[in-house]
């Protein structure tokens, strides 16, 4: 019975780690999240006494991407998914700025306030 309990805990731990790493990998494939994380790392690179990495901004940038996606129209969504523009369109800059403000106040935000 003890071996079975240890096995069960180990199996649960493995399954949890696999699902967590899958979710993390999925988030890192999202170009909005990637760009947000890169921007945040660049903006916070001179903070003294603290070394920051991508995981420090994962929740925030996931929120920003979610709010942006929920607040844009179908044409804009198609534009995002068909090609990653080198220069961000003005509508995307505005959407990201609004999403950033909202996610600073509520990291679980789902859509932009209008």
SSE topology:
Layout lengths: L1 H27 L2 H13 L14 H14 L2 H9 L7 H16 L9
* Assembly category: single chain
Principal-axes shape call: extended
Query: Spans with pLDDT under 50 lasting ≥5 residues?
Result: 19-26
Rg, Å, rounded: 18 Å
Strand content: under 5%
Bin the helical content. 55-70%
Structural class: mainly alpha
Number of distinct helices: 5
Query: What about the largest sheet?
Result: none
**End-to-end distance, in Å?**
58 Å
What is the tally of beta strands?
0
Order of helices and strands: HHHHH
Mean pLDDT: 78
Structure description:
By secondary structure, the protein is mostly helical. Helices cover 69% and strands 0% of the residues. It contains 5 helices and no strands. 13% of the residues are buried.
Question: Any descriptors?
Answer:
114 residues, 69% helix, extended
Could you write a compact summary of the structure shown?
The chain has 114 residues and is mainly alpha-helical. It has helices at residues 2-28, 31-43, 58-71, 74-82, 90-105.
